[in-house]
Amino acid sequence: MRSEFILVNELIAKTVKTSNCYRIINPIVVAPTVAAVGLAFFSYGFPQAGTCMEISIPQIALVLIFTLHLRGISIFGHHSFRIYAVPLSVTLTWIYASFLTAGGAYNYKGCNPKIPSSNILTDACRKHAYTMKHCRTDVSNALLTSAWLRIPYPLQWGFPIFHFRTCIIMAVVSLVASVDSVGTYHSASLRVNLRPPTPGVVSRGIALEGLCSILAGLWGSGTGSTTLTENIHTIDTTKVASRRVVELGAAFMILFSFMGKVGALLASIPQALAASVLCFIWALIAALGLSTLQSGQCASFRNMTIVGVSLFLGLSIPSYFQQYKPQTSLILPPYLLDFAINGLMSLNMVVTLLVAFILDNTVPGSQQERGVYIWSRPEDIATHPSLLSTYSLPRKIARCFGWAKCLGV
Predict the structure, then answer these.
(1) Contacts 24+ apart (CB under 8 A), 223-228
(2) Is residue 225 situated within a structural domain?
(3) Helices marked H in 65-163 — which ranges?
(4) Confidence (pLDDT) at 332
(5) With contact defined as beta carbons under 8 Å apart, do 378 and 409 qualify?
(6) Domain of 194?
């Protein structure tokens, strides 16, 4: 198995002209773009969760009850239901699904489990195999076959393979992720009652996302690295925004990555249960994206039109382009026009960003109406020791990168 290491473009796209791009990115652009990221998966969420209603409905109901109806209940001084709504609801539903699996609710009912689903002839067995794939907790069989200790290493899936066509798409997608990150950085600073970061700090954070994407590609994860908008909700819920907590959590995640049984245990989560959780997560991302509109004038007809049109076209235009398959056998330039444009215009968040960006920067509007982000200046933060310690690099890392002035505050 060979991995396609195309994520190196993340670093390039995220660092080129970053300090200039953030000046023309504001909440009216960020809000629909982030919302489109969450809404883009509406066709996957409940259609996948609906394959196993007896699991998905309890999961969705539990996470909503914990986050909304029981959010004010305190247990030993902690709002446990609000803070641990997702892991607590997943654990309860997971145990419930395990009992259903062990009790024979998803047995093969006369169908041979050793026959691949592609070779099943009867419709009844094919339908039942599809249900079991989404409902059973023992589909992967990973707990029995996985090793207790496994050390991941770079290039473990083979040497990277570069494809120019996918590099183009990933470069544009990384730009969308950067827009999301800019809004997240600014919102996070407000949540913890700090002055907004400086342009240098913003550039440094986006560049670090690109570097982490390169590392993810080297280790063969197949996914990039970016700022998770939902962390804003996590800060609001837990009231914790400490570096030490993040460092400790990262240390545990690295430790667990060496334990094969931990990953195997997570692999036993039914697909319907995972899709049910994502129904909540993606909906929350869409809501958090729209919440950034509070920085501007929400009732402004200009802003309402830009957000509404960009969000609707961002969901509608990709549906049109997804009807056509690009002719990948063509060569440049028809190849670029066919594959790249079709691929990019099929992505909801890319279309939303393009429409919102063009409209917001061409339609006249005051800074107050647009809610333009205000960033701090390095000299302002230098006069506040607490801010300097928050936004500056750790001492040991700062010594290694002291030559790079752009990495400072």
Answers:
(1) 224/7, 224/10, 224/170, 224/173, 224/174, 224/177, 225/10, 226/177, 226/180, 226/181, 227/177, 227/180, 227/181, 227/184, 227/185, 228/184
(2) yes
(3) 80-83, 85-102, 123-135, 142-145
(4) 46
(5) yes
(6) 8-376
In a domain? residue 73? yes
Give the whole-number percent of the chain exceeding pLDDT 70: 85
CB under 8 Å to 268, separation ≥6 — which residues? 137, 138, 139, 140, 142, 143
Give phi and psi for 367, each to the nearest 5.
-65, -35
Q: What is the percent of the chain with per-residue pLDDT over 90, rounded to a whole number? A: 20
User: Could you give the count of Cα atoms lying within 13 Å of 155 in the half-sphere of its Cβ?
Assistant: 4
Q: Which residue has the tokens 């333009």?
A: 372
Q: Hunting for tokens 């909906």 — which residue is that?
A: 283
H or E segment to which residue 116 belongs: none
Distance CA 101, CA 138 (A): 8
**d(C-alpha 315, C-alpha 317), whole Å:** 6
More reliable by pLDDT, 118 or 34: 34
Residue 61 has pLDDT above 90, yes or no: yes
In tens, the pLDDT along 124-154 reads 777 777 777 788 888 777 777 788 888 888 8
User: Could you tell me if 128 and 109 are in contact, meaning their C-beta atoms sit under 8 angstroms apart?
Assistant: yes
Q: What does the alpha-carbon distance between residue 221 and residue 157 come to, in Å, rounded to a whole number?
A: 9
Confidence of residue 337 (pLDDT cuts 50, 70, 90): low
pLDDT averaged over every residue in the chain: 81
DSSP 196: P
- How many CB atoms lie under 10 A from the CB of residue 14? 26
Question: For the chain, what's the residue count?
Answer: 409
Q: Calculate the dihedral angle through the C-alpha atoms of 314, 319, 322, 324, rounding to the nearest 10 degrees.
A: -120
DSSP-assigned states of every residue in 309-349: HHHHHHHHHHHHHTTS---TT--TTHHIIIIIHHHHHT-HH
In a domain, 2, yes or no: no
What are the beta bridge partners of residue 373? none
Looking at the 3D structure of the chain, how many domains does it have? 1
**pLDDT tens digits for 232-261?**
888 887 778 888 888 898 899 889 989 888
Using CA atoms in the order 114, 117, 120, 125, what is the torsion angle rounded to 10 degrees? 90
Structural domain contains residue 301: yes
Give 215-221 contacts, CB < 8 A, sequence gap 24+. Answer: 216/7, 217/3, 217/5, 217/6, 217/7, 217/8, 217/160, 218/5, 218/154, 218/155, 218/160, 219/152, 219/153, 219/154, 219/156, 220/3, 220/155, 220/156, 220/157
- Quote the DSSP letter at residue 69: I
